[in-house]
């Protein structure tokens, strides 16, 4: 069967030869350069140990320097799958998501027509270029000169001018014998609704030819010279040659420059691409008047694995970046992503180059951020997270976005990155607090202590809490599988011991590492972990003696965290009661203090007397000796507690 014109071109554009060949070979990592599409492997067609089989992904051809096999994606499928030409095309079309065309007896006729349309487009491009050099193009030349685009640059970019007349191009082409339906078929003219001659699509505009990946002129972009024109920029309508969602401005030169090692940049418009190209950033492209489409994204990834989206520094540029994130997330693959570089506020790449030069643009590009960072920024921008519900809403929004990623490995890494950024945002600070948005913490008031404050509360903070902190951290370190269940509680753990605080931060940071203990030891030194696990009160904990026992770890963490919460509340109650004693102590307040102290002692009864550092309190509960001294001194000062009648 015959294939319609352009089908094979489209198939080759959508097909990555590296991916097709990669299913059959193992690439030589030392010789290959994936960024340039320059790949090497042992030949799949003959037995060899050296990597003499070469794939040039940008040109779409392979060649073996051993057996001299050569061809493209179609011939490779034919040879390796033992199928015919049309069957190979069908296999590749299925993988590329293209529907095989029905039999078309007029395929040759269409191919001939497509060739004629390309010829007409080239004639139009020459006409526009000549018009820019005439008197009619004076204003346009002055404008371009003011934008820093001199005659030599205009010639390099084939910039032209469409004169301000209804049929200037129409009359020029018809005088050369071009048929009317070809001119209209190219989108260069539109039929008159008043019965007159067709009129030119582009009038009084600076013209930029749009070429496909093979360098053929398929469309034009026109910049209006009249400031009152309804459309500042106007593209050709879609035609047999032009599909704006599958085309990029400056595609072929950018692909060639990227092959030489330049970073692929994506700007917003023609002038940005030209300015970047003239400044040395030759691997620059632009979509054509619309947001980047899925097809354009695939074209970009065929040129380079990680294009940099260089957006204007305004709200529209940022909105475009945010829309692109949602488009790209489901399409991400290993080694295939995006980075984002936002120009200074109110400027585009052309503005930056003219104001500060190429070096200023290079600095912006060097500061380009990964897509995951921009996703995070979008979800937290301008929001306040001062309640569990708001934090939960953030978690839900991020989870929904991450689930769009089809690749499980990338989805996991995105989750890890988001988790790390979330920890940075909400990590506990000494003194407590809650996140108020925009990177600021709003500290909550704490119970203040002075010479008259509770010695009992101070002793508890210095000894009891530090022991419980140590047990909690040691259990989580020995059985990191439970961290997902207790992450928020550990984040909120207000460590009184600075060493414990360092361990808590490291534990949360490296929770998703294959070996959290090894990662923490590398970050803090092995002594920090050894000191924690050697502590007598920690070493005897059953969950520490039985690392990996998830059920035991869960029970221990639940119990220890609950006790910390209870003790903290009771300690505050004691401190507040003592504040009331600053005047004359009455029996009611004294009784309140005594009851609070007894209740706190009852909360400690479940703890074993693990060492000689503990005594027994009035109710038989274990009590720290320092705590006993503090309690005795307090009671001596305020008298024995008794309930008033």
Task: Describe the protein.
There is one protein chain. By secondary structure, this protein is of the alpha+beta class. The protein has 4 domains: 7-96, DNA Primase, Chain A; 106-242, DNA primase DNAg catalytic core, N-terminal domain (Alpha-Beta Complex), CATH 3.90.980; 382-442, no CATH class; 455-638, no CATH class. It is built from 29 helices and 19 strands. It has a 5-stranded mixed beta sheet, sandwiched between helices. It has a 4-stranded antiparallel beta sheet with strand order 1-2-3-4. It has a 4-stranded antiparallel beta sheet with strand order 5-8-9-10, covered by helices on one side. Helix 19 (455-462) runs antiparallel to helix 29 (625-638), helix 22 packs across helix 23 (516-524) and helix 23 (516-524) crosses helix 24. The chain is elongated. It starts with 6 loop residues before the first helix and ends in a 7-residue tail after the last helix. Monomer. Interacts with DnaB. Its EC number is 2.7.7.101. This is DNA primase. Belongs to the DnaG primase family. Residues 602-625 are annotated as: Disordered.
């Amino acid at each position: 069967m015959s294939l319609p014109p352009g089908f094979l071109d489209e198939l080759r554009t959508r097909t990555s030869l590296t991916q097709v060949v990669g299913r059959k070979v193992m690439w030589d990592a030392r010789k290959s350069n994936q960024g340039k599409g320059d790949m090497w492997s042992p030949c799949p067609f003959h037995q060899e140990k050296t990597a003499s089989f070469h794939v040039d992904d940008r040109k779409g051809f392979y060649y073996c320097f051993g057996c001299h096999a050569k061809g493209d994606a179609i011939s490779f499928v034919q040879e390796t799958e033992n199928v015919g030409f049309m069957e190979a095309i069908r296999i590749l079309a299925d993988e590329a998501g293209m529907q095989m065309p029905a039999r078309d007896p007029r395929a040759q006729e269409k191919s001939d027509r497509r060739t004629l349309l390309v010829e007409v487009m080239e004639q139009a491009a020459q006409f526009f270029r000549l018009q820019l050099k005439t008197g009619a193009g004076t204003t346009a030349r002055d404008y371009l000169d003011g934008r820093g685009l001199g005659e030599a640059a205009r010639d390099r970019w084939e910039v032209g001018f469409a004169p301000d007349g209804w049929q200037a191009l129409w009359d020029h082409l018809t005088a050369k014998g071009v048929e009317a339906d070809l001119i209209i078929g190219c989108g260069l003219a539109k039929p008159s609704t008043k019965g007159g001659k067709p009129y030119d699509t582009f009038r009084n505009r600076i013209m930029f030819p749009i070429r496909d990946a093979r360098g053929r002129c398929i469309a034009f972009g026109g910049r209006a010279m009249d400031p009152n024109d309804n459309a500042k920029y106007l593209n050709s309508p879609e035609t047999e040659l032009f599909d704006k969602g599958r085309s990029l401005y400056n595609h072929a030169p950018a692909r060639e420059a990227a092959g030489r090692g330049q970073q692929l940049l994506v700007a917003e418009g023609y002038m940005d691409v030209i300015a970047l190209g003239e400044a040395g950033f030759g691997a620059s492209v632009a979509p054509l008047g619309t947001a980047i489409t899925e097809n354009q994204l695939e074209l970009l990834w065929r040129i380079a694995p990680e294009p940099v989206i260089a957006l204007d520094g305004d709200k529209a540029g940022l909105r475009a970046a945010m829309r692109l994130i949602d488009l790209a997330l489901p399409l991400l693959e290993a080694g295939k992503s995006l980075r984002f570089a936002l120009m200074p506020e109110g400027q585009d790449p052309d503005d930056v180059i003219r104001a500060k030069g190429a070096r200023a643009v290079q600095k912006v590009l060097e500061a380009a951020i990964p897509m995951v960072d921009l996703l995070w920024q979008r979800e937290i921008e301008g929001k306040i997270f001062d309640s569990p519900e708001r934090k939960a809403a953030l978690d839900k929004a991020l989870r929904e976005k991450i689930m769009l990623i089809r690749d499980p490995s990338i989805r996991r890494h995105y989750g890890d990155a988001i988790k790390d950024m979330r920890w940075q945002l909400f990590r506990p600070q000494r003194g407590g607090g809650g996140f108020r948005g925009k990177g600021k913490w709003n500290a909550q008031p704490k119970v203040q202590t002075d010479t008259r404050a509770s010695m009992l509360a101070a002793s508890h903070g210095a000894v009891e809490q530090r022991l419980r902190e140590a047990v909690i951290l040691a259990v989580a370190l020995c059985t990191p599988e439970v961290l997902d269940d207790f992450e928020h509680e550990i984040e909120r753990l207000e460590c009184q011991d600075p060493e414990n605080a360092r361990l808590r931060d490291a534990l949360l940071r490296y929770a998703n590492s294959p070996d959290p203990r090894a990662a923490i030891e590398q970050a803090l030194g092995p002594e920090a972990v050894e000191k924690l696990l050697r502590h007598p009160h920690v070493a005897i904990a059953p969950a520490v003696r039985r690392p990996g026992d998830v059920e035991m770890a869960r029970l221990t963490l639940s119990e220890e965290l609950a006790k910390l919460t209870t003790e903290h509340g009771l300690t505050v109650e004691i401190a507040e009661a003592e504040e009331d004693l600053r005047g004359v102590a009455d029996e009611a307040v004294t009784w309140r203090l005594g009851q609070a102290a007894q209740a706190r002692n009852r909360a400690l009864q479940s703890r074993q007397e693990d060492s000689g550092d503990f005594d027994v309190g009035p109710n038989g509960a274990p009590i720290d000796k320092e705590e006993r001294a503090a309690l005795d001194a307090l009671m001596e000062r305020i008298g024995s507690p008794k309930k008033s009648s």
